[in-house]
Specification:
Layout (H helix, E strand, L loop, with lengths): L22 E3 L4 E4 L23 E9 L6 H17 L3 E2 L2 E9 L4 H15 L3 E4 L3 H13 L4 E3 L19 E3 L4 H14 L5 E7 L3 H16 L3 E8 L7 H10 L4 E2 L4 H13 L7 E3 L10 H4 L3 E4 L8 H14 L5 H20 L4 H9 L4 E3 L2 E5 L5 E2 L2 E6 L5 E7 L2
Parallel strand pairs: 3-5, 3-6, 6-7, 7-8, 9-10, 9-11, 11-12, 12-13
Antiparallel strand pairs: 1-2, 2-5, 4-5, 13-17, 14-15, 15-16, 17-18
């Protein structure tokens, strides 16, 4: 998911205090999580590796997520999706009973690395789901890959999650979400084909790879489709006054504003645009808009690319939403949906491989074709990224998002 700042809170190791099930705390915030009675889970993360005795095969999988800190809501949603998938599977995959170890990375890369190392070297996990943000997931993925432990994140969208800086594939790393450049391409196609615009102004934070990547991929696809970028405006994270630049852009009369940034900055940009007479010009952005703290009044009627919508009428989505609501009492967000998908993909790979050999599990995941997930039919490309559709959502003034359509790769 979006590249997010690490958490600011240095809390004690009260991991999963608000969560159900039997737990025992372990150093570094990891816990073994009790599951359903048939799940065979055990308390205490010091338990040894899975037994391979006939009829009692056990395989351990880990969840790494920010359950405290500044992005804890992302982690809490992901944990719910993770647990729902396991419960629905009866904590079983093939001949194996699933034992779970969960840990709180607090949105901090060092915490995430410590957890990954502990999961692998002490707890004996054979696969990992997580983490949530790219800033934590990238260093965690290096540890998992070096130890040949299959890992799948539901939500970390940066390209560096599944590949090294030189572009070399990390063969044991996968994800259930699409990557950042794809969002820009989808937005450009939606602008050209659905909104029918031919000119656009693009605003981006020059210091943030997330927003730079979306802006550049949007420009490339928009121009390839016959569109024209009439303004290419960079700013910094510290900038808060956009009145002058909006005055200049308004004079160019763009038919669209592309704003690929997080909800707080996008809210400021949208206000400035409306103040300068651009209120009727459609605005379009990426999944960084997906927050309850978005300025819904300023962005009402505008669009962004997303991974999932609870209002998507597809049977797979509606079945998941109903089951999630029945368990947790509210609709699932994209973090819950994507981690639910990531967990089910891992369970399917274990089922197909039917062994605790990590290379066999990795290969089974890579070979999945057309896996039916909440986020669509998933197959993996050569870099461990899913080939799947994106969703377009519209912002409503009542602080809801409205499903508009899906756009295929």
């Amino acid at each position: 998911m979006k590249r997010l700042l690490v958490g600011l809170l240095a809390v004690s190791l009260l991991v999963l205090a608000a969560c159900g099930g039997s737990q025992s705390q372990a150093p570094g915030g990891s816990t073994s999580q009790g599951g359903t009675p048939q799940g065979g889970t055990s308390a205490g993360s010091s338990s040894s590796g899975p037994s391979t005795s006939a009829g009692d095969k056990v395989i351990k999988i880990g969840l790494i997520a920010p359950l405290t800190g500044s992005v804890k809501t992302f982690g809490e949603s992901s944990q719910k999706g993770f647990r729902l998938a396991l419960e629905q599977a009866g904590y079983k995959a093939g001949d194996f009973t699933i034992e779970v170890v969960e840990g709180d990375d607090k949105g901090d890369a060092t915490e995430g690395q410590n957890l990954a190392t502990r999961f692998i070297t002490r707890d004996g996990v054979k696969a990992i789901v997580g983490s949530i943000t790219s800033g934590v997931t990238i260093p965690v993925s290096r540890i998992a890959n070096e130890n040949k432990i299959p890992m799948i994140t539901g939500t970390a969208t940066a390209e560096g999650v599944t590949v090294e800086e030189d572009g070399t594939r990390k063969p044991f790393i996968f994800r259930a979400c699409f990557i950042d450049p794809f969002q820009g391409q989808v937005a450009a196609r939606f602008a050209l084909q659905e909104l029918g615009v031919k000119t656009a102004a693009v605003f981006y934070d020059r210091g943030n790879p997330y927003t730079v990547g979306l802006a550049e991929s949007f420009r490339a696809e928009f121009e390839a489709g016959g569109g024209q970028i009439v303004a290419w405006e960079a700013y910094t994270e510290a900038d808060t006054d956009f009145s002058a630049v909006m005055t200049n852009v308004a004079a160019l009369k763009p038919e669209l504003l592309y704003l690929p940034d997080y909800y707080n900055k996008v809210s400021l940009l949208a206000k400035a645009a409306r103040d300068k007479g651009l209120g009727d010009v459609p605005m379009l952005g990426g999944d960084g808009w997906d927050s309850e703290d978005l300025d819904f009044e300023a962005l009402a009627g505008n669009y962004f690319t997303a991974h999932y919508s609870a209002d998507d009428p597809s049977p797979a989505v509606q079945k998941f939403v109903q089951e999630f609501e029945a368990k947790y009492g509210h609709k699932p967000d994209s973090f819950a949906a994507l981690t639910y998908d990531a967990t089910n993909i891992l369970l399917e790979a274990i089922r197909v491989a039917n062994t605790d050999d990590t290379d066999a599990i990795r290969q089974a995941m890579q070979d999945l074709k057309g896996f039916q997930a909440v986020g669509g039919s998933i197959s993996f490309d050569e870099k461990g990224n899913p080939i799947k559709a994106a969703t377009i959502l519209r912002v409503n003034p009542d602080k809801t998002y409205e499903f508009v359509t899906t756009v295929n790769p």
